[in-house]
Amino acid sequence: MLRRTIVVVLAALLVLCTRPGAAQMERRTPSTTYYQCFGLFYQGDYIDALRGFESESRSSIKTVQSRWIDSICYETMCGECYFHMGRLDEALRRYTNALEIYRQFPDWMMKVQFSSPTIRPAAAGARKVVPWGQSTRQSTIGSYPGSEKMLQGQVDMNEVVQRGGVLTPASFFPVTPHEIVRCTALALRRRATLLGPVCKHDQLSNDVIAALTRPAAPANHWSECYVDAEHGLALVAGGREGQAIGFLQRSVLAGGQFDHPLTCVALLSLGHQSLAIGKYDDASKFFMEATYAAVNTYSSTYVPDYGVLEEAFRYAALTHLMANRKGVFPALEPAILWAKRNQLRHLQASLLLSAAENYAVLGNTRLAGAMLDDARSVIGRRTMATGAIGARLSYVTATLAYQQKRVSEGNAAFAAAMGYMQRGSSTPVFRGKSGGSFRLFHIGLADGLYASGGITPRGAMDLFGEVLRDPRPSDWALDPMESLAVLMTPHHGALEHWFEAAVERSGVKDVAIAVEIAERARRHRFFTSLELGGRLESLRWILEAAPDRLSREALLQRQDLLARYPAYNKLWQQSQEMRTALAKTPPKADDRAAAQEQSRQLAALGAVSAKQEAILREMSLRREPAAMVFPPLLPLATIQKSLPDKHAVMCFFATGHRLYGFLLNNERCSCWQVAAPQTLSKQIQTLLRDMGQFGANHEIAVKDLANGKWKQSGRQVLDTLLKGSPADFSQSFDELVIVPDGVLWYLPFEALQVKADGKMRPLISRFCIRYAPTLSLCASQGAGHSRSGSTAVVMAKVRAGEKGEKEDAAAAFEQFLAAVPGAIALKPPTPAPTSLYAMLFQRLVVLEDVTPLEDPYGWTPMPLDRTKAGGTVADWLVLPWGKPDAVVLSGFHTAAEDAFKRVRHGPPGNEMFLSACGLMGSGTRTLLLSRWRTGGQSSLDLVREFVQELSDTSPADAWQRAVLLGMDARINLEAEPRIKRGTTEESPKAGHPFFWAGYMLVDCTPPPKAEQPAAKAKRQ
Question: Interior CA angle at 181 toward 274 and 151, to 5°?
């Protein structure tokens, strides 16, 4: 008892000795040196600023348990340096540290001995006059002391004596409350930005919200406005914007009358809330009021929040653009001069970039360029050049370069901007694993949270749905650089985890969500293979595709874009006139003069298209909403509704080491997991070898054609593939559409064996079979194939006989011409690059060898101009839009021809998936693609039979008919280069799948309308 009394007395004496009047060495926190670092920070010298803040952090106040509240400031400002330089992982760590300290001392303001319970108005003339406008708010600037005394440590020693622990003597310490609150609020805002949708699932964020529901400031004291601001920001971070508005509105004024150091923060946040719901007038007002408040809060130690000032100006200028207001945002020019006078380089550079974009939108490229030049000069060699401000400079530079038709310069600048978004700063101090894109960072956080088991499958579904969605119109309007970064950066692993979460949650009963996720993953694989992540391709479709292939939304976007870009509209009209003129002339010129004229017309069309492409690049980087049109993303119900009776779709999706299948018709959809995908892969290899696929030029002996071993292999593959599924291919139906994935692109489903009527039969004999690279492309696109239009044929030199004699290509073409009247044989040289020339033909048949390269779009569909530019799939994708409606590539080579022993281009099946998507992206709707080349008369016969029926029936019907006829026909051994002949063999029939199973019909056309008898007779 005596010991306890002595301890309490000593503690009381210590408190008396540390009252404000006691003699002691006074130290303010944050320190004076801390404020000196802001000069470097606002100059954009983030390396030196970071070193200064970290130095102050090392000398911060420590308690027995942790660092004290002054470290909130040091951690937050270190985080700010990393934030502006794109080191988002380290920035998040620092902001988290700051809020964890706050969580330790949530009621620290209760211990502050505020010098006055009321606020005094600032001295006359304290309000700073700024040149860009004047506040309309009826408020008074308050005067706030530079520091207040705060009691640090323990006054009540009884609990320590009773329960034990370390005694922390109490002492009064000078603190700057508004700076600690400002940094707490900043940490809340930035951490919400970095966590994005993940913030709702973050324990620290929820703990802070809970802490702020308890008293955190003296009751009925003006400092409650600080707590209201923090509470509102915490609720915004937690996705509770509706609850946050009231707190933020109440926090704008202290004591209901006075502006305070967090007034600008509250106004800025209210502006963001208004902008998010499209209230542009309110947003503009809040942002501008935030700029006035940021420089008009009076305190003896207060450093104006130029960070809030920059952000408020940036979003005010953005709101001006989003609201489609006329002229240049009027506040920019005076603000630029003000920032220059005050040597605020980061603010000045940001304002110049906003002005440059504004002038570019108005078409004033001269002034836009001048603003960019000034911004480069201001940025100079400061650290910010490789940070977020440098990325903005590169992005606006790229936009302006495209606007001025300087495409190569624009490409370089855009690559620099995307480099920052994907990889972050190149400055060693700030180099890390994450890039500068917030949305990419969100995807990584969400994926990591799911992989670590930190979220339930239900929560993962909502979270992945938010972070992995296609860019919305609001996303393009707010930050197109973020949207492009997401489209261009592969995140296949996260998409697969999303799919697995859907399967786990639903137990594969509600398959619609899983099907849609698989569809999104396929589209993303295609988008990331394209320039600008598919944004360019989508704009081409919106502006150029036939109206019957576009949604209502896309057609409305076409109208808007043509109205907003009159230069493109004018070029579009010129292009249409040129195409109409070309359509009136024969696709193959009759004489030299006609050929020269055709070449001139095609060159002129190419020049117009090149100008259109330059404008499309500008559109791509601008804040223009544009749906991701191709491949489409249709709801499962819409796809099912499009399927006729007795039509089914079998769709597959591979994730890691798992393979899932979906079977659907117009009534039901079911899902199953393929039990042994590795076994299935080996079985497919065995099947391909049983079909003779050991290499591109491997010869098959005639006697091996009679070997039926492939039938058993085909039955095993089908049994493994369908085990656990409801599929019953012994039943009769009309058509099966297959959406393959992975190694299934190499599988000839047509040859798989099913027992029907007591016999083993190939699937192609049971029903029509066609393929689609995505599920949505199973649905019909546009009208059926036109009976008009010409057919172009690129003939191959067919080798015949042991002596190596070559069959006359002219004779082979005559056979084709007899079945397809009006067909045209093409030979080099062509009058223009084939990417231009091909648009003159309705159908294209290529019998020559075609081999994909490492670049999935670097190969040539029409091997007539291999030695000159303009013939690759990449060239086909650019304008003029609309390549042949039907394309046949009977000499296409894939990894199936050696049983995918050596997969050439990335994941298995990738070359076929991207080739199919690429050609269909250029406008083709029917694609007959070979998995391996046979190169003989049987190939020519199959193609001829198929093409001649295209105008009278569906492609799937036409192909089934051609295959069944081919299987029953005798082989001309002298005209089959890959058949190894003996001396006495009789010519067998082409029943072996080597001859017909290597073809894949990819199609999204409806059957043609029935032709009137009179019209049919006239045509015949």
Answer: 155
Task: For 458-511, write each residue's pLDDT tens digit.
Answer: 889 999 999 999 999 999 999 999 999 999 999 999 999 999 989 887 655 578
Q: Check: CB of residue 322 under 8 Å from CB of residue 314.
A: no
B/e letters for 207-244, b = 16+ CB within 10 Å, e = fewer, are: bbbebbeeebbbeebbbbbbbbbbbbbbbbbbeebeeb
State the DSSP string of 765-834: GTSEEEE-SSGGGGS--SS---S-S-EEEE----EETTTTEEPPHHHHHHHHHHHSTT-EE--SSPSS-H
Length of the chain: 1020
Task: Give me the helices (H) in 429-588, please.
Answer: 438-451, 457-467, 473-478, 480-488, 492-506, 511-527, 535-544, 552-564, 566-583
How far apart CA 22 and CA 12 sit, in angstroms, is: 14
d(CA 383, CA 391): 12
Instruction: With CA atoms as reference, report the closest residue to 720 among 664, 679, 663.
Output: 679
Distant-in-sequence contacts of 613-616, Cβ < 8 A, 24+ apart: 613/407, 613/878, 613/879, 614/402, 614/405, 614/407, 615/402, 615/565, 615/567, 615/568, 615/571, 616/536, 616/539, 616/540, 616/543, 616/568, 616/879
- In sequence order, what are the residues at sequence separation of 6 or more whose Cβ sits closer than 8 angstroms to the Cβ of residue 540? 616, 877, 878, 879, 881
Angle value at C-alpha 679, between 676 and 682, nearest 5 degrees: 150
With contact defined as beta carbons under 8 Å apart, do 700 and 978 qualify? yes
Q: Report the alpha-carbon distance of residue 594 to residue 600 in Å, rounded.
A: 10
Whole-number Å distance between alpha carbons of 938 and 965: 11
Task: Match 């709101």 to its residue by tokens.
Answer: 319
Buried b (16+ CB within 10 A) or exposed e, 788-799: ebbbbbbbbebb
Which residues face 756 on adjacent strands?
759
The answer to whether residues 769 and 960 touch, using CB atoms and an 8 Å cutoff, is: yes
Q: Lowest mean pLDDT: which of 17-21, 116-120, 204-208, 217-221? A: 17-21
Axis crossing angle, helix 388-403 with helix 345-361, rounded to the nearest 10: 20
User: Could you give the 3-state DSSP secondary structure of residue 201?
Assistant: helix
User: Could you report the per-residue pLDDT of 536-548, keeping only the tens digit for each?
Assistant: 999 999 999 999 8
Burial class of residue 204 in the structure, from the number of CB atoms within 10 Å of its CB (0-12 exposed, 13-18 middle, 19+ buried): middle
* Helical (H) or strand (E) element with 600: helix 592-621
Cα separation, 918 vs 478, in Å, equals: 30
Q: Has residue 24 got a pLDDT over 60?
A: no
Q: Where does 691-729 have alpha helices with state H?
A: 709-722
Mean pLDDT of the chain: 87
Mention every residue, 6+ apart, whose C-beta is less than 8 A from residue 444: 434, 494
First to last CA, the chain: 118
- The pLDDT of residue 517 is 94
Contact 639, 649 (CB under 8 A): yes
Whole-model pTM above 0.85? yes
d(CA 973, CA 657): 43
- Whether residue 1012 is predicted with pLDDT greater than 70 in this model: the reply is no
Query: Half-sphere exposure of residue 498, counting CA atoms within 13 Å on the CB side?
Result: 26
Nearest to 70 by CA among 36, 41, 35: 35
Does residue 725 register a pLDDT over 80? yes
Give tens-digit pLDDT for 371-390: 999 999 999 999 999 999 99
> Distance between CA atoms of 539 and 537, rounded to whole angstroms?
5
Bridge partners, residue 755, by sequence: 760
Contact 271, 109 (CB under 8 A): no
Residue 495 class from Cβ within 10 Å (0-12 exposed, 13-18 middle, 19+ buried)? buried
Rounded to whole angstroms, the Cα distance separating 547 from 543 reads 9
Asked whether 724 and 757 are in contact (CB, 8 A), the reply is no
Helix, strand, coil percentages in the chain from 3-state DSSP, rounded to 5: 55, 10, 35
